[in-house]
Amino acid sequence: MDAFEKAEKLIELQEKTECQRCGHCCTQTENIVLTPYDLKMIAWQHHQTIDRARAHFTRIIDRDHAIRGIKKTLPCMFYDPLLPGCSIYEIRPAVCRTFPFKSQPADDTPIVYYNECPASNKALESI
Ligand code: SF4
Ligand code: SF4
């Protein structure tokens, strides 16, 4: 499966996921990895420069590979329990858009799923 096919599969799986809004993914998982585009959108929404948003909202997860994620807080700093849900839903990071499924797009690692998500098994059964 090439990177394009894999991205299509992740989208297909995610579209079939009927989120139950249990909040587990936003309150219990720690590493929310950001792409440069994710950071750009977070900066834009908060009317900040990218440098300021990087300092304010992110931390280094893997210095060797320059990987950054949302600052480690549980629940995620963007989770709003009153919604309940994501306060930046429209611009949420790519990793949140494909949750509970994930994979590395550029290699042949398989798609894996987060089995703590109550909706993931149902989505897998539907394909
Ligand atoms: S863990 Fe699954 S069901 Fe629960 S909020 Fe996240 S995506 Fe939705
Ligand atoms: S950015 Fe939004 S969707 Fe992603 S973990 Fe935080 S609250 Fe949840």
Task: For this entry, give a set of tags.
single chain; 127 residues; alpha+beta; 2 domains; 3-stranded antiparallel β-sheet; two-stranded antiparallel sheet; 6 helices; 36% helix; globular; binds iron/sulfur cluster
Brief sketch in words of this structure:
With 127 residues, the protein is an alpha+beta fold.
Walk me through this protein's architecture.
Helices cover 36% and strands 15% of the residues. It is α+β, with helices and mostly antiparallel strands. It folds into two domains: 1-17 and 100-127, no CATH class; 22-92, no CATH class. It has a three-stranded antiparallel beta sheet with strand order 1-3-2. β2 and β3 (67-70) form a beta hairpin. α3 (36-45) packs across α4 (50-57). The protein is globular, with a radius of gyration of 15 Å. 17% of the residues are buried. The mean pLDDT is 87. One iron/sulfur cluster binds at residues 19-25, 99-100, 117-119. The site of one iron/sulfur cluster has 10 residues, from loops.
